[in-house]
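Narrative of accomplishments. A recurring question from our advisory board has been how the design workflow behaves on a single, concrete structure rather than in aggregate. To address it, we present the structure tokens for one chain from the evaluation set, followed by the sequence designed for it. No filtering or post-editing was applied between the two.
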């Protein structure tokens, strides 16, 4: 037979392996078997020899099995043969990772290709089944980029495949690594075994980033002339390498004597004298550098710079002054001027500026401190006005005519007026004003006609007076005008016409000229041409004819035969060439009808005086201008108008703005371009700046052009001027709403998920808004928790808020406050940033935390016989880090397994129940008894308690606890010399004393009085009681009565308390736990005992009849003897035990000796059982004298007392046997604090 076999380790139990075959020549029946230390693996059929597998084999534990095969024919010696079974390996083992858990720290600048950790998994199988390969299955945070961030080599080395970043990528990775064997057979099929482990990679921050300033831009202000050391603002920079968190030093780049910075705190303070007026641009720009203390990983200085703008605010420490210059080309470093001079034509139109006057008012202070008012003073001030009436810092000053009627050259002495301009800084109480004296010279214009002293002169001249004869020298005229305007020439005119006439004879061919003064527009001009002819009046030689010599204006006139020259219509001065200054010359020819005709010519000079009969005309009916908002006093545009009148008084034009919406924002100044052509310069009021965003951005102005003579008529022309206000990006953006609405998100959101889009507005028409995150503050339960949430969210420039981390955890941070602002990149003027706003991101809880049990450090004990339904026997508690319903926990008991002292397990149901209570977010599970416990079980209950929350989906966890049982063998009896009521009243004190002595918990089982038949008569008489209890330590161990005795003995304080409370005896309580076999045996024995008892009763009855007879005989004999003694003698002896008197009826007939020691009655001895029955006075009690301290206090059996006469108690024989038994028992003698313990279950009555 083959002695070597192979056995694959995956062979199932019961599979046939091989067969033992033996040959017996005698053909005897053979019996097969197998022996050896490893024969238990196999089962052998004794008849057939078939060998099957009885127990599974494990190649990794047993590779070779050696057994002995036996065969026996029951006649000869047994034959033994050694067999070898080789176990073959199968792929039954998983690769096991060694030295878990795997954790490593990796610097964020670790080079790509560097190995960061090596894991190791071992497979106990052999061959390919024991060869392990590794793969990375998952990288958390789980995304495509992170999946390729690492790779693992065949030997388990994890290699970095891409760059890390502490700030821009995750700071923690959890790599799931699978170890897989090479495959092997199992149950005939090739299988592969694998296992997983996790490698935790923590990215360590290194110093590779420059610091970052927080709260930019830095703009501060400080008043001029402030004390040195005044703090202005604080800059703050942080190390962006959060885990490095290097110290930051600050310094100001470039020399400055005005400010200094604390290199540690970043506080900028004043270090020099500040003069607002001496600082260009009214602000100081500082370049502040923040530098980390240590070098970065590249051995370079890690630093960052920022610009700090400090505005030196103005104090009102300057008085406005006047300067003579053309603004803005002014040098205010020159000395101010207090005297100015200008000129203006008399009767200039209202609002006409005084010319040759260049005044600029300047106050070096800024803002409200540099605001001052202008006013005019002096006797002639009412004729003028000053503009502007208020100036901020600097402005050109104009003096305008307000009352032209008083500006009369001819009436004002010296032809000049003097006024005073006062610049008043109303915010200053002293040294508030400056003054400028202005002398205005009036220019004369030809505004008066010559006037004769009288309206009519009568002159007489003799005929034939020679030429040159003075007719009159008293004709005089005056003209108030000055200069050439007041120079007069005289002419003679016939009658009412002021025409000088020279009459000459035709014969002499002498002729003069006619001068005619008319006003344009006059209907008909009649001029009588007078001519004479000295020829005979009756002939044609004296007959005169008139005609107009053709010329430039001849067509405009006619002349009749009488010599009346008439105009064909009204004459228009403007139709006359301007260079002729209104003078029209018409040549009249007069001839006679003689032969030859004689003629002569005369010039008629018609002077057409200009009349204000032309309305000014704009060169356009619509002007469109534009102006940027925010500017003050600048020119908007020019309008032009002409007047066809030819004299200055009639063609002078002044411009006005008709009152309308917004017209008060503009001023218009008139200027003469040339005669009859004026320009109106439209400007913004120096005190007003237009605002495109908050005011109207289109102004429709009606500009009037007017001229007027002094007769009261006013001719006006109008033009529409549209002024478009151009938007300048000068408004700061704003986040809407302000403050932003709270945003609510849930924890554990996926990476890059959109959360919200913030909104911002800018009332400027052209803007580009970018959101900026300034700082993040993290809170949990209103407590600042640092920077835990600083990278959880990303605010993109367009206002989109997205998730930037997979670490959003409600339990770490439930509120993130983002400080943010908006920047307008197109801002031209002003602050490009919005006000800083705080966005509250409220993080909501999801059910991502399972309940967590608190550690169970307490040992739980249950006493079955004392455990009623609903009794609490154990307590568990659990918490859940989630909130709301997600943290509400309900407990349930999953399983109950009873483990006996022998190690056997028993699954039980409905033994315990659990109720759930909550207290301050801690949930408590009270484990209570659900049904009566089996007191016969000895061991421990192993409970699995499940805690499940109310979230969706619910999460749960479980915990195991042990409840140890205390059986009846540990019940201890305590006897008290007090009544039941007294012990019950002092029960708490008794428990405290017992607990103090034994350091255990006392569980009272029963309390009863010794009033039953088992108690002695004295116990019942003294009201004694017994309390049965268990003493259980905190570790679940129950104390035996011997240990309790020892502990009480060693604690004198507790002992004294217990004695005072009546404790007398401590002992065990006999407890018998019958089995079912014992119960059956007891029943059978009881039946047999009942039969024997009946027989015994019958026998005793017969014996007692006999005894009764004998006792009666003895009583009679005793009576006879007693009659021989006197009563007094009898009374001197001791009383007879068992009797109450010395009479015959009370005598004890069973005494086996004489009453008198000297008397022998010769009665027969009593039997032993007679003596034994006399025990009525025997007792098991504490026999102690109450008032005697010398008398020993006995707890246990009482020794027999000696009689007064020296005779021993008749019960001595019985008590000696009882005392002999007591000597073998432990006893407690309470004498001078000593205890003697006995078995309280035994007394003489039991004997």
């Amino acid at each position: 037979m083959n002695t070597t076999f192979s056995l694959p380790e995956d062979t199932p139990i019961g599979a046939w392996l091989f067969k033992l075959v033996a040959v017996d020549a005698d053909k005897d029946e053979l019996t097969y078997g197998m022996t050896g230390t490893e024969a238990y693996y196999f089962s052998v059929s004794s008849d057939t020899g078939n060998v099957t597998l009885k127990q599974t084999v494990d190649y990794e534990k047993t590779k070779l099995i050696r057994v002995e095969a036996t065969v026996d024919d029951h006649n000869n010696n047994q034959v033994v043969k050694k067999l070898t079974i080789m176990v073959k390996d199968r792929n039954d083992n998983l690769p096991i990772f060694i030295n878990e858990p795997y954790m490593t720290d990796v610097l964020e600048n670790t080079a790509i290709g560097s190995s960061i950790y090596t894991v190791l998994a071992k497979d106990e199988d052999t061959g390919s089944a024991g060869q392990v390969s590794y793969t990375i299955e998952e990288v958390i945070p789980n995304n495509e980029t992170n999946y390729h961030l690492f790779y693992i080599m065949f030997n388990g080395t994890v290699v970095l495949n891409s760059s890390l970043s502490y700030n821009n990528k995750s700071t923690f990775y959890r790599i799931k690594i699978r170890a897989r064997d090479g495959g092997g057979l199992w149950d005939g099929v090739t299988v592969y075994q694998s296992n997983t482990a996790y490698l935790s990679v923590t990215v360590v921050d290194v110093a590779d980033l420059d610091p970052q300033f927080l709260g930019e831009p830095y703009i501060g202000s400080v008043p001029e002339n402030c004390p040195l050391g005044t703090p202005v603002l604080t800059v703050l920079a942080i190390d962006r390498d959060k885990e490095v968190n290097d110290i930051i030093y600050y310094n100001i780049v470039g020399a400055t004597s005005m400010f200094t910075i604390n290199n540690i705190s970043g506080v900028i303070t004043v270090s020099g004298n500040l003069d607002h007026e001496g600082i260009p641009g009214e602000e100081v720009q500082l370049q502040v550098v923040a530098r980390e203390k240590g070098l970065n990983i590249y051995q370079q200085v890690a630093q960052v710079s920022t610009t700090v703008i400090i505005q030196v605010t103005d104090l009102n420490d300057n008085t406005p002054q006047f300067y003579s210059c053309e603004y803005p080309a002014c040098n205010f470093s020159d000395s101010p001027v207090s005297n100015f001079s200008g000129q203006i034509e008399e009767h200039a139109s209202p609002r006409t500026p005084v010319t040759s006057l260049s005044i600029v008012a300047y106050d070096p202070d800024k803002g409200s401190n540099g605001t001052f008012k202008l006013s005019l003073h002096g006797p002639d001030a009412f004729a003028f006005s000053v503009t502007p009436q208020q100036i901020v810092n600097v402005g050109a000053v104009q003096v305008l005519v307000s009352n032209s009627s008083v500006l009369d050259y001819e009436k004002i002495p010296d032809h000049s007026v003097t006024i005073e301009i006062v610049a008043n800084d109303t915010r200053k109480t002293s040294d508030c004003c400056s003054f400028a004296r202005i002398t205005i010279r009036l220019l004369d214009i030809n505004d008066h006609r010559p006037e004769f002293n009288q309206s009519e002169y009568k002159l007489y001249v003799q005929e034939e007076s020679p030429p040159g004869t003075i007719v009159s020298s008293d004709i005089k005229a005056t003209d108030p005008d000055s200069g050439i305007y007041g120079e007069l020439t005289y002419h003679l005119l016939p009658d009412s016409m002021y025409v000088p006439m020279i009459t000459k004879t035709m014969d002499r061919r002498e002729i003069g000229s006619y001068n005619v003064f008319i006003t344009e527009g006059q209907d008909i001009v009649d001029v009588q041409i007078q001519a004479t002819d000295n020829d005979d009046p009756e002939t044609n030689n004296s007959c005169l004819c008139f005609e107009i010599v053709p010329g430039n204006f001849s067509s405009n006139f006619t002349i009749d035969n009488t010599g009346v020259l008439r105009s064909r219509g009204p004459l228009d001065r403007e139709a006359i060439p301007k260079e002729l200054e209104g003078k029209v010359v018409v040549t009249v020819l007069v001839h006679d009808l003689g032969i030859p005709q004689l003629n002569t010519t005369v010039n008629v000079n018609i002077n057409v005086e200009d009349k204000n009969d032309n309305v000014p005309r704009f060169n356009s009916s619509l002007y469109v201008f534009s102006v940027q908002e925010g500017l003050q006093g600048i020119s908007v545009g020019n309008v032009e108008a002409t007047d066809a009148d030819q004299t200055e008084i009639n063609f002078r034009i002044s411009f006005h703005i008709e009152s309308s919406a917004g017209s008060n924002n503009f001023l218009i100044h008139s200027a003469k371009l040339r005669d009859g052509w004026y320009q109106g310069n439209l400007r913004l009021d120096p005190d007003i700046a237009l605002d495109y965003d908050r005011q109207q951005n289109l102004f429709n102005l009606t500009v009037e052009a007017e001229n007027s003579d002094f007769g009261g008529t006013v001719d006006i022309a109008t033009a529409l001027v549209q002024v478009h206000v151009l938007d300048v990006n000068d408004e700061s953006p704003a986040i809407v709403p302000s403050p932003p609405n709270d945003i609510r998100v849930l924890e554990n959101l996926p990476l890059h998920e959109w959360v919200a889009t913030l909104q911002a507005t800018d009332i400027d028409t052209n803007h580009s808004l970018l959101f900026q995150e300034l700082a993040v503050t993290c809170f949990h339960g209103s407590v600042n928790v640092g920077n835990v949430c600083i990278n959880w969210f990303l605010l993109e420039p367009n206002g989109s808020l997205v998730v930037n981390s997979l670490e959003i955890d409600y339990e770490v941070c439930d509120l993130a406050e983002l400080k943010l602002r908006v920047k307008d990149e197109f801002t031209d003027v002003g602050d490009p940033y919005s006000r800083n706003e705080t966005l509250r991101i409220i993080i909501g809880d999801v059910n991502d935390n399972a309940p967590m049990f608190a550690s169970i450090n307490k040992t739980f004990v249950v006493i079955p016989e004392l455990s009623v339904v609903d009794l609490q026997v154990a307590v568990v508690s659990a918490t859940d880090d989630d909130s709301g319903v997600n943290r509400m926990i309900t407990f349930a008991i999953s399983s109950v397994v009873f483990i006996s002292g022998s190690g056997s397990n028993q699954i039980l149901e409905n033994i315990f129940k659990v109720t759930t209570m909550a207290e301050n977010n801690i949930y408590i599970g009270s484990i209570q008894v659900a049904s009566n416990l089996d007191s016969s079980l000895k061991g421990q209950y192993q409970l699995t308690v499940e805690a499940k929350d109310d979230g969706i989906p619910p999460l749960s966890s479980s915990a195991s606890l042990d409840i140890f049982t205390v059986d009846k063998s540990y019940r201890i009896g305590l006897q008290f010399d007090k009544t039941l009521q007294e012990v019950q009243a002092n029960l708490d004190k008794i428990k405290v004393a017992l607990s103090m002595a034994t350091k255990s918990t006392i569980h009272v089982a029963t309390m009863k009085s010794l009033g039953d038949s088992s108690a002695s008569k004295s116990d019942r008489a003294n009201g004694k009681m017994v309390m049965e209890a268990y003493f259980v330590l905190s570790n679940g161990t129950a104390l035996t009565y011997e240990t309790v005795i020892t502990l009480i003995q060693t604690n004198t304080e507790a002992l004294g308390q217990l004695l005072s409370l009546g404790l007398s005896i401590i002992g065990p309580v006999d407890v018998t736990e019958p089995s079912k076999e014992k119960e059956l045996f007891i029943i059978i024995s009881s039946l047999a005992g009942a039969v024997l008892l009946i027989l015994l009763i019958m026998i005793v009855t017969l014996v007692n009849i006999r005894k009764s007879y004998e006792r009666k005989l003895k009583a009679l004999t005793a009576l006879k003897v007693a009659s021989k003694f006197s009563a007094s003698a009898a009374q001197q002896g001791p009383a007879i035990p068992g009797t109450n008197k010395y009479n015959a009826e009370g005598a004890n007939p069973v005494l086996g000796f004489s009453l008198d020691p000297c008397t022998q009655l010769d009665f027969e001895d009593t039997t032993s059982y007679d003596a034994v029955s006399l025990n009525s006075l025997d007792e098991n009690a504490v026999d102690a004298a109450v008032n005697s301290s010398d008398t020993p206090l006995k707890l246990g059996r009482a020794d027999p007392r000696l009689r007064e006469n020296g005779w021993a108690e008749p019960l001595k024989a019985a008590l000696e046997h009882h005392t002999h038994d007591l000597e073998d028992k432990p006893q407690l003698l309470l004498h001078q604090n000593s205890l003697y313990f006995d078995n309280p279950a035994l007394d003489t009555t039991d004997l």
